[in-house]
Amino acid sequence: MMLPPETLITFFSASVILALAPGPDNIFVLAQSALHGKWSGVFVTLGLSTGLVVHTIAVALGVAVIFKTSALAFTALKLAGAAYLLYLAYMSFRAGASGTETNQQPKLGKRQLYGRGVIMNLTNPKVSIFFLAFLPQFADPARGPVSTQILLLGAIFILATIFIFGAIALMAGAIGQWFAKSPKAQIALNRVAGTVFAALALKLVTTHR
After folding, report:
1. Angle at which helices 146-179 and 24-36 pack, to 10 degrees?
2. Of all helices (H) and strands (E), which one includes residue 54?
């Protein structure tokens, strides 16, 4: 049996609100879009969404429990994520005015941008733990296999994420185009992005289960 429409609507509304709330992923999309153009943000969003697919499957299969119960697995993954964010921060501080391109000719390729999104999402163990706590609340064992319901709910959450993050990418890309007219503004934008990446790395390192 399918979940009732009212449950699905409530879940989708909650997912939209969560996607709008400031967090590492949407801030990451905003920074990438402002630096490299709106389409760059869109590809990063698709990468982040792919990571959410993996987290959803992990919850459905029970794998996410590992990150909730194993301090070693949790720490290893979050340190890997923090290291990657620090690398992005270093590259942003190193970039000059040429580091910001228009959305018609992004400096990074589509695969690179997509890969950034995937890595950013997969190396954040808090996402799996969040899904582990959030998705089952809307599942009903009386309506069929819980794992199937989890996959459905995960798909709805991903659709909400693509919608909201895509809008963020378009708006931030427009701001980036304005900055692209000034070399000094481009350099300042890179410095701001580098600071954001470093702050996200610090936040991830200090995160507890």
Report:
1. 40
2. helix 38-61
Tell me the two tokens of residue 2: 């399918």
3-state helix, strand, coil in the chain (%, to 5): 80, 0, 20
pLDDT digits (tens, 9 = 90+) for 41-73: 999 999 999 999 999 998 888 877 776 777 887
Residue 123 DSSP one-character state = T
Q: Give the torsion sign (CA, 161, 163, 168, 174).
A: positive
- Return the domain boundaries, the chain: 35-97+121-205
Tokens matching residue 10: 């409530």
Tens-place pLDDT, residues 113-157: 999 999 989 988 878 888 888 888 888 888 888 889 999 999 999
- Token couple for 181: 């007219």
